[in-house]
Amino acid sequence: MNAKKCFKNCTFTVSALNSLLKGAISFSMEFLNVEDVQKKLEEAGYIPSREIATVVYLAGATCKPVLVEGPAGVGKTELAKAVAANLGRELVRLQCYEGLDEAKALYEWEYAKQLLYSQLVKEKIHEVILDAKTLQEAVDKIAQQDNAFFSERFILARPLLKAISSEKPVVLLIDEVDKSDPEFEAFLLELLSDFQVTIPEIGTRKAVTIPFVFLTSNNYRDMSDALKRRCIHLYIDYPEKTLEKRIVTKKIPGINETLANKVVDTVSDIRNLDLKKKPCISETIDWANSLIALQVEELSPEIVHDTLNMIVKYRSDMEMVKDSDVLNLKG
Q1: 194 and 55 in one domain?
Q2: Which H or E run includes 197?
Q3: 186 with 280, same domain?
Q4: Boundary-marking domain end, from 235, 268, 290
């Protein structure tokens, strides 16, 4: 096996992966270095910090999942989308929620289809056991045909099974994993550690290809130590002003530079208030777009007052911003 080629495409089996890791062999999957990650993500419309680019590079080099935590709206999901777009991979997304179980995340057994097949081959079953002299012999003959009734043809693949069954490597996004139950989080451990899943009807399924895995969390609850051990941890916070200005001008190419600077500065000042929900990057971009739609070239207290709904999402936060000196709206 050509180890370098195998690692580049990340299409090896779990046993091959373990062998490579034990031999201390490490190759980047798709990226040359950290700078290459930064360049390629920017080409995909995502401007990463040095830390983000480093984590993505290491995840690609080791095929280790990335657990991305941070406030809502700072670009956690967009990071996975950008990696998928740049690598030319399909993005397989599992949106987590309370009560999510294996049937929705891994696979669904199509009982109706299985029953239909059983009815259609009823006469054939009779032929199989026709020469059986005892009940035990008849049961043994039917047992020999188990594969006809318990096989992949009756499995409807959900995101997790789809990701590890794909002939071509994919990017697997397990979004808002913190909203799922602890029991589901425990179920994920087998997938994240060995890239395999156990299906009671047909046994253990190992990955055909190793997906590039991102898990996102808005800190709704703490993730277990067991889950964190299996992942590279990345915390994305609200960006520094310089980075946020680059993001705004990247997402809105025609924006006036002075307006972009003022928008970012104002949002940054608002975040320093003790708000229930601080404005995120996506809200900064939404606000900038709304100002352009209003043909605003320069911010004023009146314009900010009229468009504050684009930034602030709670009434209590709205009153706090209006009563503060940040926007010069007081009085």
Answers
A1: yes
A2: strand 196-199
A3: no
A4: 235
113 pLDDT exceeds 60?
no
Residue 77 lies in a domain: yes
- Tokens 């929620």, residue? 97
Which of 57, 18, 22 has the alpha carbon at shortest distance from 37?
57
Closest by CA to 250, choosing from 106, 44, 72, 101, is 44
What is the average per-residue pLDDT within 245-268?
92
What band does 42 get if pLDDT is binned at 50, 70 and 90?
Answer: very high
260 and 177 both lie in a single domain: no
Q: Provide the pLDDT confidence category of residue 198 given band limits of 50, 70 and 90.
A: confident
pLDDT of residue 191: 84
Q: Identify whether 327 is part of a domain.
A: no
Query: Which residues are within 8 A (CB) of 91 and not within 5 positions of it... i.e. 6 or more apart?
Result: 80, 81, 84, 170, 171, 173
What is the overall mean pLDDT for the chain?
Answer: 81
Do residue 87 and residue 168 come from a single domain? Answer: yes
> 53-62 in b/e burial notation, b at 16+ Cβ within 10 A?
bbbbbbbbeb
**186 is a domain residue:** yes
Q: Which two tokens stand for residue 203?
A: 């046994």
In angstroms, rounded to a whole number, what is the distance separating the alpha carbons of residues 148 and 143?
A: 10
Residue 2, phi then psi, degrees to nearest 5 = -80, 100
Final residue before a domain boundary, out of 196, 213, 235: 235
